[in-house]
Amino acid sequence: MAIKRTKAEKKIAYDKKLCQLLDEYTKVLVAVADNVGSKQLQDIRRGLRGDSVVLMGKNTLIRRCIKVHAEKTGNTEFEQLSKLLVGNVGLIFTKGDLKEVREEVGKYKVGAPARVGLVAPVDVVVPPGNTGLDPSQTSFFQVLNIPTKINKGTVEIITPVELIKKGDKVGSSESALLAKLGIRPFSYGLVITNVYDAGSVFSPEVLDLTDDDLVEKFASGVSMVASLSLALSYPTLAAAPTCSSMGTKTCLLLLWRLTTHT
Questions:
Q1: Which InterPro entries does the record cross-reference, listed alphabetically (predicted)?
Q2: Cα(215)–Cα(219) distance, integer angstroms
Q3: Burial of 87 by CB count in 10 Å (0-12 exposed, 13-18 middle, 19+ buried)?
Q4: Cα–Cα dist 146/36, whole Å
Q5: Which of 51, 69, 88 is closest to 14 using CA atoms?
Q6: Cα–Cα–Cα angle for 170, 89, 174, rounded to 5 degrees
Q7: I want to staple 51 with a disulfide (CB 3.0 to 4.6 A). Which of 95, 130, 154, 184 is the partner?
Q8: Mean pLDDT value across the chain
Q9: Residue 100, SS3 per DSSP
Q10: Measured on CA atoms in the order 155, 157, 161, 166, is the torsion positive or negative?
């Protein structure tokens, strides 16, 4: 029979594991784990097995480990992660492509019922059609002002109805109706909120930028610098092509005038 470790032994083992990860990895995804179950986490770990490690734990414990690691190694770059440890979050250490890892994590979303008191992460719309419920269940629909009719001995919803708006709390009537209709409107999984890469922290949206997007943004920036430079009559490399063109036109105009008046 396996010997059960004490709380102190577990903490020492956790410290050792986290310090090892900080030594081996330079890329980390910070993920919110609200409403994510243990089975779901196991599936995510299994899907990322090979070049990524998912680490969950108390924020205070992780912060302490990061601080101790910085004091031992002199590497303070990971201390930026401490500021991101807010709420129910986990860390995904990876040696793979950050965008591909984020996409893999996004595959493991699980449908969930609308439980009473939950804050809706999305709008919930009940579609029209036959519900399969008998006419005695019409009271649920009447309470929620959902237009219905009786068709072949069952309740049929006539038009789409926005039952719950994003950000609203789920009420008991809404929860009961969705359960009767077999609708699981919410889906939960790890949500990547921040990306750490070799000392830099940025939004996961940056991972969606393509080379064309970068070229377009760079060109836009150069254009703004050139416009400002011309307005201030201050020479810069960005404005050099325009200045050269304007200078050439000025010289040609001057030459034309001299030729015309001689």
A1: Ribosomal_protein_uL10, Ribosomal_uL10, Ribosomal_uL10-like_insert, Ribosomal_uL10-like_insert_sf, Ribosomal_uL10-like_sf
A2: 6
A3: exposed
A4: 32
A5: 69
A6: 10
A7: 95
A8: 84
A9: helix
A10: positive
pLDDT in tens, 63-107: 999 999 999 999 899 999 999 999 999 999 999 999 999 999 999
* Structure confidence by residue, pLDDT tens digits, 228-237: 665 656 566 5
DSSP 27: E
Say which DSSP state 152 is in.
T
CA distance 129 to 223: 55
Any residues with CB less than 8 A from the CB of 145 and at least 6 apart, and which? 161
- pLDDT (tens digit, 9 = 90+) per residue, 181-219? 899 998 889 999 999 998 899 999 988 876 664 555 555
Question: What is the C-alpha to C-alpha distance for residues 111 and 188, in angstroms, rounded to an integer?
Answer: 7
237 in helix, strand or coil? coil
The pLDDT of residue 43 is: 93
pLDDT in tens, 135-170: 888 887 888 888 999 988 899 999 998 999 999 999
CB 29 within 8 A of CB 90: no
Structural domains for the chain: 7-109+189-208 (3.30.70.1730), 124-184 (3.90.105.20), 212-260 (no CATH)
Q: pTM higher than 0.85 for the full model?
A: no
